[in-house]
Each structure stands twice: as C-alpha cells, then as structure tokens.
Design goal:
The protein has helices at about 15-30, 55-60, 75-90, 120-125, and strands spanning about 1-10, 35-40, 50, 70-75, 95-100, 110-120, 130. By secondary structure, the chain is an alpha+beta fold.
Length: about 130
Amino acid sequence: MIKQVIVMRKDLKMRKGKMIAQGCHASMKVFFDIMEETEICENDGEYQGYCFKTTPEMYEWINGIFTKICVSVNSEQELLDVYKQAQELSLPCSLIEDSGLTEFNGVKTLTCCAIGPAKAEVIDKITGNLKLL
C-alpha cells in the first residue's frame, strides 16, 4: 500500500480548522517541492509550464485512493526528528512553518510535516509508533 502520513504537533493546541489547513499545506508542499519548470513536457514540443518528477509510488498514489493518515507528536523536537528520519530515508517530505499571522502571537512556528506518498512499510518505520490524531 502507498500512503502519505501527516505529522501534527499537538502541543500547540491549534484550532481544528488551523490544523486542517496546516496539514493540507504539508500534503501539497511535497508535490510543489518536486515541480520543475520546463519548456517541453511529454515530448510534445509545447511549453507546458510545470511538470512533476514523480516516483512510481507517487504515481500509484495519485491514481489510486490517496490514503492519508494523520498522527501526532508532542513537541517541535519530535517533529524535527521525524522529518529528519524521512529525509535520511530519501522519502518525499515537507516541513511547514506557519507565519504566525492568525495564531502563535506573530511568531513563526513549525506546525507539521508530511511524509510520502511512499510504501507504507517504509513510512511505518518512522511513524508507526505515533498516535493517531
């Protein structure tokens, strides 16, 4: 199974809507990070704007059921540890820093990360012990 895991900081006590927005940012940022501007896409000779450099797992996930799991950590350090582990395994991942405009008293704050899409057994090595959100 291919899945994406969103890891959210519970210690921030974000409003539910804020948590959803931050998780969505993380999920999408994984794909924005792999976009590249190109003049030719699919070898059709026409300018296409941006193309994705997807992995086979990403392609399967995009064309499948978009499995997402939301889990939690209790500190910024735990979030950073999870994100670093994902990077070390060369998994697609993104880390979200909120600008602090609506919460956090104007202080930029790391809120969540997304890992994957990738094979569940690989992601589970990092997030399998975390509690569901």
